[in-house]
Amino acid sequence: MEIIRDLSLLPVLAHPVVALGNFDGVHLGHRAILKAAIDRAHSAGGKAYALTFDPLPAKVLSPQRAPLMLMTPEDKLEYLRGSGIDGVLVLRFDLALSRLSPRDFVKDYLLARLAVEAVVVGHSVSFGHKRTGNAGVMVELGREFGFETVVVGPVKVEGVEVSSSKIRELIAAGDMARAAGLLGRAHFLSGVVVHGRERGRTIGFPTANIDSKTECVPPDGVYATRIVLPDGAYASITNIGMRPTFNETARSIEAHIFDFNRDIYDREVKLEIVERVRPERKFESGEALGRQIARDLKRAREILGASAPAN
């Protein structure tokens, strides 16, 4: 898969089709858009490209209100690659780009630089200055300039419309199962295993402390999880929070991997968060915490035994 950050380096394309969007999470709605672009391009012997932005426009225009990202930029590219798209065009989003009207964005980028034959968008797409462009505007511009517009969606799962904002809402509520239903996979955190205070070892419960690069972290609590390494996914239980029993003041993400004794310090991992076992709470002693951990381990094993690992 090609990744192009400078459109001037893009060769002349035959029958190019562009899927336009932020694609944060590469969820089921995004996959429907990407598939429509792939099918449209390949039916004409052309190539399909995802056109996306870095950073997320909201991070530039209203950083205080910008949503937490479901994926790191690197993970997004990995999952776009897995969709079968032929390439990804990454536009650097800045204030100059934000000031382009929808019409000028289409003329300057989709036509002048890409010569698109078709554009595929989600039904709730927004683009151009002050987000004044939408799916209807893209259809009108396509008619004016002679390219086809394909509008996809809404995509629904059990009556719920799939969107990045809805998935963030579910994750914020700790409802990982419903979030996974809209994502089409378990939500995961990417990060490096770092040295922590090693509190777990003192109660016979060694953990891997993960420094998450993923912004969208679930609320404090205990979760049934899987650690994904290059050689496979390993069942685990993870505590996210402040460790109130030990009066800690820094939030941490600590995963205990079942039946595992390898050194993975400084390794990049993914932590799939399958289901919340319970909220975090303070115990009167380390012994009481240990008894609760035994119950949590049993419940996490039950959850993970009933759910298949994500691909």
What count of helical segments does DSSP give? Answer: 10
Question: What is the CATH topology classification name of the largest domain?
Answer: Rossmann fold
Helix content: 25-40%
**Oligomeric composition of the shown chains:** single chain
Distance between the termini: 19 Å
Q: What is the radius of gyration?
A: 22 Å
Please outline the major beta sheet: 6 strands, parallel
Write out the CATH superfamily name of the largest domain: HUPs
The CATH class of the largest domain, by name, is: Alpha Beta
Strand order of the largest sheet: 1-4-3-2-5-6
- The H/E string reads EEHEHHEHHEHEEEHHEHEEEEEH
Going by CATH, the architecture of the largest domain would be: 3-Layer(aba) Sandwich
The proportion of residues in beta strands is 25-35%
